[in-house]
Write a structure and sequence with these properties.
GO cellular component, one term: cytoplasm
Distance between the termini: 16 Å
Mean pLDDT: 86
Strand order of the largest sheet: 1-6-7-8-3-13
Number of domains: 2
Number of strands: 15
CATH topology of the largest domain: Chloramphenicol Acetyltransferase
Helix content: 25-40%
Low-confidence stretches: 132-140, 355-360
GO molecular function: acyltransferase activity
Family: Belongs to the plant acyltransferase family.
Order of helices and strands: EEHEHEEEHHEEHHEHHEEHHHEEEEHH
Oligomer: single chain
CATH class of the largest domain: Alpha Beta
Pathway: Alkaloid biosynthesis
Main location: cytoplasm
Length: 443
Amino acid sequence: MDASLQFEIISETVIKPSSPTPPPLRYHKLSLVDQAMPPNYRIRLAFFYANIKGTRWLANEISQLLKSSLSKALAQYYPFAGRLMKNGYMIDCNDMGAQFTEGRINSRVAEIRKQLSSSSEKVQDLIFARSLFSGPASANHRSLVFVQLSSFNCGGIVLSVSINHRIADASSVSTFMNDWAAIARQTSDIPSPHLHGASLFPPVDGQQYRHPFPPKPDQGKYAKRILAFHASKIGELKAAALNSGVENPTRFEVVSALLYSCFMSAASKANSGSHIRPSIFFNAVNFRQIIVPPLPQNSVGNFATYFLTSVDNNAEVKLPELVNKLREGKTKLRKECTENINAIPSKLKASHSASPTAAIETINSDCYGCSSWCRFPFYGVDFGWGTPSLVYPAIIPEQNANILVLIDMEDGNGIYAHLILKELDMSLLEENEVLLAYASLDA
């Protein structure tokens, strides 16, 4: 990245709810599913708006509108303005607010977009709130929500949010952003998020987060990449699966299956093909609409579970076979959730009490985590100056993490695949001719 690129801070402030949280709502319990999230992990999303210069909006008007509407949104999403308590399963809804940083980036939107697919984190440092307020440690350091508004030389802006995963999953962030934008547009609809997770899945005092995959010995540095799967190429993947007997393959199935296959191929080549290991593909699933009765779409919190797909070795596995494996795993999960809502907390508790044998099996496997954010209405977030030209999820390498996040392209048909792999695996992936037949490296 160009070393001259800088973020100039204009202002930093705390946005508090427009009205105080009623005393009976002061302490908000998290759900058992919320507790399963890493306590310090954040969902980070950036919304790029490239064409504001030609509109009636002025920079100071945008800033004031966002601040005033955020204040009103926080009155409805009152846990977002609170602070996580030390017990780990409750939020003190004390109205301390969300951090709002405003600044300028001496670049153009197009230039930043070109560099987003690189492995450098410096671009992310420009568009996301990098640090909290200066000065001694204070309650601000425990803010659950951070917002940064950045303006560019071309007149475009990027609005980024960073929200603690303990209080929201990707679907919740989408709901929050669309409600915030609706308030800014002064629509007649007043947001009324459903904050009922703890009533469905009561928390457990003292429950600590435990990753489903145990830590492995350090295996070197990790690299980040964005791959673009355009609608026409996804159509070709679907046709290939259909011709091999897969009935109505979905975008998620063909793209994730192709990537899983390529991940295994890269891992095998990284070991010179001499050490074949089993692999596990961990898929997060939004269960709001698959349990009985289904939950409202605006249920806010964490409402996600998972299913696993595994392959005994890294030998070449055909795409249709992997698509069927993914479908079988998701079908089984749907059946479990439909028949018994308690299957969800049972799965979580089982992952926390996994047997030593299961842990050893995981350590001896190549593990990959996948989360699809496709179909969440991120591209509908319109504050009054139009919808975003790009929605960018920032994923941060965790120790020994192989991560895949899928999100829609602007057209709603293509998919961006955001990945983090070991550097050697990533370099081998980028040379995979099968992958390059369907994906573009210049996202």
